[in-house]
Write a structure and sequence with these properties.
Blueprint: H1 6-13, H2 17-30, H3 38-45, H4 49-61, E1 65-67, E2 74-76, H5 79-84, H6 88-108, E3 112-118, E4 121-128, E5 143-145, H7 150-157, H8 161-171, H9 176-192, E6 195-198, E7 206-213, E8 219-227, H10 239-256
Antiparallel strand pairs: 1-2, 3-4, 3-8, 4-5, 6-7, 7-8
Protein name: IclR family transcriptional regulator
InterPro entries: GAF-like_dom_sf, HTH_MetabolicPath_Reg, Tscrpt_reg_IclR_C, Tscrpt_reg_IclR_N, WH-like_DNA-bd_sf, WH_DNA-bd_sf
Domain IclR-ED: 79-259
């Protein structure tokens, strides 16, 4: 007897070290805004630089990673984001929501973005601008701290306790004041059916966010308008009008995704 459990034996049997190293690099770079050098990657992953170099060369050749000329740091390209969009549920969601978002943006003269939960962050999977010259927009593909967003509150408010506990485990409890404020907001968001709150990152922006449900009754995305008051130029819908139209559009997108079919 070697003292190993069946699970440990299976894990050793199906190990793929090269694949694991490549995934480790991708996951590490995904959390680094400014990229990392080869030496820094090796140090953080506790690997020698030669094996990291080989993996980086393959990832660069496949288009997942690129090396900046100015400082030789490695950073992710958008390929992982592009691959994720080929996943049928996300592709269907963005396909259904895209035209409706653009029509609403033009109607209320505000930009907006569609977001999901990914690895404990809010991930922006679609973004549209209005036709005005001056806009406030969130970058497509941005990963944002869930505590700082109206989208995050909407995405979490309808979760059952097990899912919410898992999300909080992924996010972490620091800083504690933001953690508790986030949890305290969820019942009010669910009761209202949307989230309306001043931006925690940009002064003067009022975030309006509403849920999109799928056929199972689960919230799969949040559609958010970072509402700004314009002092001149093209007229803009009021906050009340924008909120009402946002909720109407999210209900329509939800219906097209099959929401209500489970009831």
């Amino acid at each position: 007897m070697n003292g190993k459990t069946d699970d440990q034996i299976d894990q050793e049997k199906y190990r793929a070290p090269a694949l694991s190293k490549g995934l480790d690099i991708l996951e590490l770079l995904a959390s680094e805004v400014d990229g990392l050098s080869q030496i820094a990657i090796a140090k953080q992953l506790n690997r020698n630089t030669s094996e990291i170099f080989r993996m980086l060369m393959v990832l660069c050749q496949r288009g997942y990673v690129e090396q900046r000329e100015e400082d030789d740091r490695y950073q992710l390209t958008t390929k992982m984001f592009e691959v994720a969009h080929r996943h049928p549920p996300i592709r269907r969601l963005t396909s259904i929501a895209g035209d409706a978002m653009q029509r609403l943006a033009n109607e209320v003269n505000q930009s907006m973005h569609l977001a999901i939960i990914h690895s404990g962050h809010v991930l922006v999977i679609a973004q549209v601008d209005c036709q005005d010259n001056n806009i406030t927009a969130v970058r497509l593909g941005a990963q944002i701290n869930i505590f700082d967003t109206a989208s995050g509150r909407v995405l979490a408010a309808w979760m059952d306790q097990d899912a919410l506990d898992q999300l909080m485990n992924d996010v972490g409890k620091e800083p504690t004041d933001k953690y508790q404020a986030f949890l305290d907001d969820l019942p009010m968001v669910k009761e209202a059916g949307y989230c309306e709150s001043q931006s925690l990152t940009i002064a003067g922006v009022l975030n309006l966010s509403a849920p999109i449900f799928d056929f199972s009754g689960k919230v799969v995305a949040a559609l958010t308008v970072p509402f700004i008051q314009r002092l001149s130029g093209t007229s803009v819908a009021s906050v009340d009008e924008c909120r009402e139209r946002l909720i109407d559009v999210t209900k329509d997108i939800s219906r097209r995704l099959g929401a209500g079919a489970h009831s």
